[in-house]
Amino acid sequence: MSATLTPQAGRATRGTTATKPVESRWERLAPYGYVAPFYLLFAVFGLFPLVFTFVVALFDWNPIGDRTFVGLDNFVRLGEDPRFWNALRNTFSIWILSTVPQLVIALVLAQVLNKARLRFASFWRMSMLVPYITSVAATTIVFAQLFDRDYGLLNFFIGLLGFEHVDFKNTVLGSHVLIAVMVTWRWFGYTTLLYLASLQAVPRDLYEAASVDGAGEVKQFFNITLPSLRPVIIFTVITSTIGGLQIFTEPLLLQPTSGTTCGAERQCQTLSLFQFEQGFGVFNFGYGSAIGVALFAIIVVVALINYLLSSRVGRRA
Amino acid sequence: MRTTAPPLAHSPGRRAPSRRQVLSYALAGLGAAAATSACSPSAPTGPRDFTFWSFTGIGQKADVERYMSANPGVTIKLTEVGSSQETAQALTTAIAGGKVPDLALVQAADLPKFALSPDNFVDYRRLGGDDVGAPYLDWVIAQATTRGGQVIGIPTDVGGLAVAYRKDLFAAAGLPTDRDEVSALWPDWPSFIETGRRYTEATGNAFVDNAATSVFYQALGQVSEQFYDADGGYAYTNPQVRQAFDWSLDALAAGISARVDSFGSAWNAGIGRGAFAVTCSPSWMLGTIKSQAPDLEGQWDLATIPNGIGNWGGSYLAIPAAAERKEAAWEYVRSVQSPASQLQHFVDAGSLPTTPENYSEPELADFTDPYFSNAPTGAIFTKAVLDITPFPVGRYTAEIGTELQNAIKAVELSAADPAQAWAKGVRNVEIVVGDL
């Protein structure tokens, strides 16, 4: 950046008055300096890999061998690959099964925790975060044991009731439900606290006035709580979408015996898991990158649709 | 500041570095330092020092320590990267990035992918002469020999096969318990399945842990042609593979499988609970059985595998071409993987040597394992690996095997239609080997 020194410019900085202190360059630049670290790190570890992924996706790229430019072949192949469509279906199914209950549970819990006459309120509010701070791996291993076909605690009770044991891990629906339960378990507390924080900001007079007017709990929820929570609901829907479409650890650890396919028939292989399998299992870097690009595009589109839909929540008068 | 600022503030001035610049340089430096030190082997100092990547829980540490105490002044920087797959991934990334260890342990299943680009590894013939592979089992060294004749791996161990069976459960089912009589029950897979049927009819319990691994995977290792033909073309629909597949479907149809996936939590629990009476066990699995069921000492025994031969697993030591200390690494490989050292390794840790010249040594031939009713494990496992026919392998050997095995697992675990299994497996293989 070159600055041409003109007389006017020089005068402009020197011309000071008592009421208007000089704004030195330092002060104008300082804020940029403070935010710079994030953007620099993001450029190195976020933006560059992102752009590079788009480049690699155009190649047949063996990390330790040849790389040949193949244009859009990887994407054509992706469209014809039943494994990709299967992973897409699984990803959406798991995402819906985990996000919807999670947000609903969080809404209800936040409403309950917001009650003024709740005893030990701080304790209840803090304990919400316990699942969230537990390691994903530990959670997955414990849940996988609980839901085991032969020796799981859950199937033990199902057996006691005289029913056949349910094989959660090796059926499509069962494995999706199991992963969704784990995701919900992990995130519901976090979301609840976000909602609660928003609710705390809602003036109590509103609720009191509504009570005086004879509005019941349910009516208050729909006419006061939901509209006040709109911004944070939009926020959580979008963040849980981005997270939910990238589910990776749970399906990977759920089926340790089947590597990266999450079951013999890829019952619960998500898109990120499929991407990992192709990239670091088979070392098809080009094809793996193409999956990554597709996942990126899908998340952008879905997040956008989500935004449009969720911004209508609570708009009802 | 004397100079005037341009109205735009998104780039640093040219005169003096702003605080932001200093900060960003520092950060960039930090980032670079972190990136380079994160997973690159630091350069060793002495001429005989070198860096070595291995898997966890494989017992390379003992070898390294013994070598270092025998050679004072030599430092080996051993990194246990993780599982065999994680180690192969790290090695691939390292080769792609150019910062490699001087020596790496590679699982047999991962070797074909590395053998595709042999220039990434040192050809052992250049270090140890043309007959560098002579002391080792021919079919084992064949898997580490590229189509061009380069030898890129020296085998550390193999996984000879046997059938581990529960004597007490066999007795309860009215089956013989003596290991020679039991071995005589199943000269081949159909008679193995028939024995299972007898057991299940007598007891109502499952006979074998699963069909996907204990039948299909083992029978698959006994073929003379597997997924590739001698010219490198695909042969995965050949009759021998199909036969192995059909035997495992027969086992499922006979209802003799406990339907527990090998190495899963239910499988670990099943070993101690008698959920199955037999499992096909390579030599390296004995430790798992012992640790899962310590109170069953003397109840387990070992019989020969149907068809008599078989191997599962084993590893190789490879020296990346970009290694700085090739000679030091080679000196180590030559010393630690000599026939005498491999025999010592068997005595210490039970890993099966790849050097047939010492299979008749008393330390190995007369070795018995008290946990397995004093079965002569050394003799049983070495007999299983002597007459294996080497078959060609290729880039997708591991993936093709997984897809076909998954087609069996789908029937076994997810109640898929057995009549469709083969067609489905073959279709999935076609997707995997599609023109990538």
UniProtKB/TrEMBL annotation, chain A:
Residues 88-306 form the ABC transmembrane type-1 domain. It is found in: Cell membrane. It holds the Pfam family BPD_transp_1. PROSITE patterns: ABC_TM1. It is a multi-pass membrane protein. The keyword Transport applies. The keyword Membrane applies. The chain crosses the membrane at residues 38-59, 92-114, 126-147, 177-197, 229-248, 285-309. Belongs to the binding-protein-dependent transport system permease family. GO terms for biological process: transmembrane transport. Keywords: Cell membrane, Membrane, Transmembrane, Transmembrane helix, Transport. This is Sugar ABC transporter permease. Gene3D superfamilies: MetI-like (1.10.3720.10). The lineage of its organism: Bacteria, Bacillati, Actinomycetota, Actinomycetes, Kineosporiales. One of its GO terms (cellular component) is plasma membrane. It comes from Quadrisphaera setariae.
From TrEMBL, chain B:
Signal peptide: none annotated. Pfam families: SBP_bac_8. InterPro entries: Bact_solute-bd_prot1, SBP, TAT_signal. This is Extracellular solute-binding protein. Gene3D superfamilies: Periplasmic binding protein-like II. SUPFAM superfamilies: Periplasmic binding protein-like II.
